[in-house]
Design goal:
This protein is an alpha+beta fold and 290 residues long. It has 6 helices and 17 strands. The chain has a 6-stranded mixed β-sheet, with no helix packed on it. α3 crosses α4. It is globular.
């Protein structure tokens, strides 16, 4: 599924999730973000109207998956769906136990399982949804610009180094059109992980568009920014992306970067990096531009 999923909850057979203190799943990627469904004692998920959670989405099978409680444990099973069910990106091949915080992907929809102190966790998750992208678990556009504004002000006053790296997946629409939106989602998640692995803890990585990512590199000089961008580009270029039928899918990045070299607003700083990204794409893609 693309960055803007068309998932729609049409019917839920469950008690009011706002007042039931028990294990639940929270919808974190799809329409109606933040909706919570209590597992009491089970929840079936699929397109058919007989399910507890009915998802009107072509990536979801009529009878797709089942959440259920047994004894003191909670589990999920795939019901022979076409596109499968994943727990933390691993396929569900048999009855799979759920642990607090697990991410469960059903077609193109992502749920988060919560079982400890569920009321507090639910409201914490609602807050996270305002700053975190549900698919990639990166920060979102809102958080990116809030963080960038603070850092530009801080670094302009202190003279500290600051870099901004903008990343665009080359020909992503063609990837989606050829291999389907579910594969496109998998590409987004894999690229997010490849970039996350080289971002320091104090730096910020965000998904600010459908196939666009940004890294705010604190305390990083221009050469360090360039080296980071080139490392990210090579990691993705060398990564073996494969479709569901085993075909290798060439995936590359265009990257633009800017380094703070004087007083400016965070909007101006972003525009400089965005202009560099445009130059990278115009020059033939799969490259870094300043």
């Amino acid at each position: 599924m693309s960055s803007e999923t068309t998932t729609r909850i049409t019917r839920v057979a469950a008690t009011d999730p706002a007042v039931v203190e028990q294990a639940s799943v929270v919808l974190i990627y799809g329409n109606q973000l933040g909706r919570r469904f209590s597992i009491d004692p089970e929840l079936s998920v699929g397109r058919a109207l007989s399910n507890s959670i009915v998802l009107d989405d072509d990536s979801v099978s009529r009878q797709h998956a089942l959440f259920y409680r047994r004894g003191d444990g909670f589990f999920v099973s795939d019901l022979g769906s076409t596109n499968g069910t994943l727990v933390n990106d691993f396929p569900v091949e048999s009855e799979t136990p759920l642990r607090n915080g697990d991410l469960v992907t059903i077609g193109g929809v992502v749920f988060k399982f919560i079982s400890d102190n569920t009321e507090a966790q639910y409201f914490e998750e609602i807050y996270r949804l305002t700053i975190i992208d549900g698919l990639t678990q990166m920060h979102n556009r809102r958080y990116l610009f809030e963080f960038l504004e603070r850092e530009v002000l801080r670094c302009s006053r202190s003279g500290s180094d600051l870099g901004l790296v903008l990343v665009d997946i080359d020909n992503f629409k063609a990837i989606n059109d050829t291999h389907g939106h579910l594969f496109g989602d998998r590409v987004l998640k894999e690229i997010a992980k490849l970039i996350r692995d080289v971002v320091r803890k104090e730096q910020v990585l965000a998904r600010y568009g459908g196939d666009e990512f940004a890294a705010v590199l604190t305390d990083t000089d221009p050469e360090g920014c360039r080296m980071f961008a080139e490392k990210v580009r090579r990691r993705v270029e060398d990564h073996p992306f494969r479709s569901s039928d085993g075909l290798a899918v060439e995936t590359t990045l265009s990257i633009g970067l800017a380094s703070l070299d004087g007083p400016c607003t965070h909007e101006q700083f972003f525009e400089r990096a965005d202009a560099a990204l445009y130059r990278a794409k115009q020059a033939g893609r799969n490259r870094v531009a300043v």
